[in-house]
Records
---
Amino acid sequence: AMGAFQLYKIPLRYAVADEVAKTLQSFFDKKAGVKNQGNNSLPPWMRGAQEPPAKAADNQVSITAETISNMLLVYCTEKTKADIDDIVKDIDTAEPPGASAVSPTA
């Protein structure tokens, strides 16, 4: 089913699972607007443009670091898993952050 939650295991080669889990969780918390608690007392129709439920589900992620085997246990939708794979690909490299020649800083 579309938008169904599944548990994924994402092994890491270079990055530390604990760090990556924190990074990803805060990224998705921001994306889901968890930090922005100000509007929650308003009824839904007064909050302006709300994300449709399916999209909201894509921002609901549970990320656990499995430190012994250095992997992430991620509970999310398939679409979100694709996003996470992209991010992990960027993070999980042998090069330290900022040393990459691929993304020049402005």
---
Amino acid sequence: IMKFGGSSVGDAEMICKTADIIVDQFNKGIGVIPVVSAMKGVTDQLLHLAETKDISEGERLANEIIVYHYSVSRDLFKRTTPVAGELRELRNKLIIDVGGRNMTQE
């Protein structure tokens, strides 16, 4: 098992290096089970998002997370990212979750 997260998957260049490590091990005949966790800074952003009670702050944080992922995805694919729709859907769910939680906590 090889676990990667944080700065090792923090941008397109690092994701490519991480993929190269996995492929290299595989090509050497080593059984590889890659596990990937959050990109650099995203866990902290998600925790902050989960704790916020301000809907506009929640929207701002959700947008930051999505823009970060969109940017890295675009850099990986060198064009419009094929996951743009999924990222927009995730952003909307994050905002709805923050809004719904805030309404029930007031």
